[in-house]
């Protein structure tokens, strides 16, 4: 068996997957860059090999082909990115693959992903009706009685442009990693707050043209004052790895200042029954994408440790370096990439 990887050459994911192939005694995977695919280059897969679809990552050339030229850190352009990316996915050969291209297209549209999960009975935060800008958002919040919501770009990733919005009579606060500059909003590695109506309206209206998905803000378990959630990797239908993400801000993403938490402590707080219920929710979310060997599920744990909801399902959510699988499970002692390679070999 040999893998052909469509990804970003030099990306950490691609390197870790190649290492997993070598450790399994397989040939070095053939790597094809997204830039060539986006330009229309044909992807050929040798008989008997497996196509692995990976993220475009931080490949600036690919980003310009997806969103157009400009600062890669800028917020916005998600709709153009999505149209170009899904168009390229449809041009890939329909061969044995680690990901179904239609699954990826749904996972990269937060509105469609939320609807699919909800239709399957997977617990998700309630979504507000579609909004086209700040004024409409405030109107919908008033109609539904919501004072705290998460506003997410429909096609964003890595918390790009995500806004945790809180309102109260005479007060407003938007927490986000989007920084205001002279030429618009840009992603930064620092979470910040906007606390005037004008600033928040400018931010939401800047995000709105690419499409928005708005959800109720579910209060999360916060031991020691740090909100937490789980990123759970599901391989071949079975949860295999999990990392606890904690943060003093509403954004738990590790690249935004979040830190890894103690998984054993979380399991202890949940109890064995709660832990198994949590993993069952993740398995049910993954089952909504049956053509994908692996997904990464963002699992929200509510205050009181009894309520669960799926925040997102990630097509490329397996970058958990240094983490091995659950003891007693099929990935015990191995990383996420080795688990996937072995799953393909069985």
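^ Assign residues to that structure.
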């Amino acid at each position: 068996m040999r893998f052909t990887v469509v990804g970003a050459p030099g990306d950490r994911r691609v390197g870790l997957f190649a290492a997993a192939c070598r450790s399994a005694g397989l040939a070095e995977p053939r790597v094809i860059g997204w830039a060539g695919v986006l330009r229309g280059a044909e992807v050929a897969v040798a008989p008997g090999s497996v196509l692995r679809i990976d993220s475009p990552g931080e490949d600036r050339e690919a980003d310009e082909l997806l969103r157009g030229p400009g600062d890669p850190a800028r917020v916005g352009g998600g709709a153009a990115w999505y149209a170009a990316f899904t168009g390229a996915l449809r041009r890939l050969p329909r061969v044995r693959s680690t990901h179904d291209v239609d699954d990826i297209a749904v996972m990269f549209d937060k509105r469609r992903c939320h609807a699919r999960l909800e239709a399957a009975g997977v617990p998700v935060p309630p979504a507000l009706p579609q909004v086209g800008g700040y004024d409409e958002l405030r109107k919908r919040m008033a109609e539904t009685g919501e004072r705290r919501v998460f506003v997410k770009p429909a096609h964003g990733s890595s918390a790009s442009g995500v806004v945790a919005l809180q309102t109260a009579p005479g007060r407003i606060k938007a927490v986000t990693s989007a920084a205001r500059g002279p030429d618009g909003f840009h992603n930064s590695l620092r979470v910040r707050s906007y606390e005037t109506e004008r600033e928040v309206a400018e931010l939401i209206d800047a995000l709105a043209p690419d499409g928005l998905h708005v959800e109720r803000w579910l209060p999360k378990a916060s031991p020691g004052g740090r909100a937490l959630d789980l990123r759970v990797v599901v391989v071949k239908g079975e949860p295999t790895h999990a990392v606890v993400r904690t943060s003093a801000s509403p954004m738990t993403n590790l690249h935004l200042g979040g830190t890894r938490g103690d998984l054993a402590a979380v399991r202890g707080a949940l109890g064995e029954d709660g832990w198994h219920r949590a993993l069952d929710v993740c398995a049910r979310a993954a089952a909504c994408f049956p053509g994908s060997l692996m997904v990464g599920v963002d699992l929200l744990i509510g205050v009181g440790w009894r309520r669960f909801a799926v925040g997102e399902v990630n097509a490329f959510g397996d970058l958990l370096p240094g983490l091995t699988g659950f003891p007693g499970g099929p990935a015990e002692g191995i990383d996420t990439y080795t688990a996937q390679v072995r799953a393909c070999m069985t």
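The two ends are 11 Å apart (CA to CA).
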